[in-house]
Amino acid sequence: MTQLNIxxxxxxxxxxxxxxxxxxxxxxxxxIAEHLPGEMHPDYTSxxxxxHWRSMAEPEDTLQRELDARTFEKFMExxxxxxxxAGLMTVTATDYFAEKPxxxxxxxxxxxxxxxxxxxxxxxxxxxxxxxxxxTFTVNTAVYLKWLQSNVEKxxxxxxxxxxxNWWDALSIASQASSAAQLQQVVVNCTGNGARYLGGxxxxxxxxxxxxxVLIRSHGLCKTYALHGHDTINYAIPRDDGTVVLGxxxxxxxxxxxPDPATAERIIKSATTVFPELINxxxxxxxxxxxxxxxxxxxxxxxxxxxxxxxxxGKPMLLVHNYGHGGQGYQSSWAxxxxxxxxxxxxxxxxxxxxxx
Length: 357
Prior knowledge:
Blueprint: E1 5-9, H1 13-24, E2 28-33, H2 62-81, E3 88-97, E4 117-118, E5 130-139, H3 141-154, E6 158-161, H4 169-177, E7 185-189, E8 206-217, E9 223-228, E10 233-238, E11 243-247, E12 251-252, H5 261-274, E13 288-299, E14 304-312, E15 315-323, H6 333-347
Parallel strand pairs: 1-2, 1-7, 2-6, 3-9, 7-15
Antiparallel strand pairs: 3-5, 4-5, 8-11, 8-12, 8-13, 9-10, 10-11, 14-15
C-alpha cells in the first residue's frame, strides 16, 4: 500500500478518530485545528456532547444505521479494553415515547445491543405509551478527546493549532510540521459546523442545532434515560467521574449559546421525576455544576462522506469529506473514519503520483 501524507482538518471526535484510523493504516498524518481537546469553546462542538450511544437513525437510513452499528461494536470493545482510561462505562438505558413512532414497532438495533427488551405497560412513565430498555455506553467527553489525541500522537501523528481561511492552507502548515511532505498528499475535511465557512468548501447545507444541558453531581446514578415528548426530548447521561449530563433541546438553526433558565428548569424537573435519587437529600435540590449550550453540526441530507478531486496549482488533489453528523458524532465516529480510509484507498489509483506541491 502506498504511504500517504494526509492532513486532517478538525480535532473533534470525528477528526481525531479519522486521523487515528489513517495512522493505523500506515499513513503519515497531521491534524490541523483551531481548537484542541481540553478547550471549551462554543465553536468546538465535541466537548459539549452528552455523550452516549442511542441511535436515532430512521429505518430507511441505511448509511446511518451502518455507521451507528459498527461504531457501537467498536466502543463496546474499547469499554472492555481501556474503559475508564478513555472515560467510557456501560449503563442500562431506557427510552420512553409520548407517542408511538411511525413506521416501526421495534427499533432497528434491537438485535445489536445487549439486554434489549420492550417495556411492559406498567413500566412506562406517566404520559408515555411506548418504550424499551437495553445496555449501552456513555462517554466522558473531556477524557475521551484527550485519550484520542494521545493515541494519535503515540502512533506518530502531529497535532497543530491553526485557524484556516481555506482548506488548502492546511497543506503548507502541515508541511512545516511533517517530515513527509514529499509523499503524495490528501486532505480530509472534518470541520463540522466550520464546513459552512471554510474557504473552498462553503457548504450552506450545514447548520447548527442548539442543545442545552445541565451538568450535575450524580449521587451514584449509573443508568440513563431518554423521554421523547411531542416536541421535546429530555435525558440524563451519567459519566464515570460522578457527574450527569441532563438535557436537552434540539433547536435547529439556532446558534444562541446562552442558557435559557426556563429550559434548564424543565430539564431538571424531568430528570428528577424519573430519577428522584438525583436530588441531594440534604438540600432538596440537585447539585448543579454548570449550565451549557452546544451547537450540533447538522446538515441537510445528513452526513457528508465522499471524496472529490480538486485542482491545486495545476495538479490533482484528493479532498475527502467527513462532516455533518449532527448529534451522532460520537456514535458514528469509528465507522465514518473507516469509510474515509476506504474512500482514500478506492480513489487513490485515479490520482497520479506527484511530487511535493
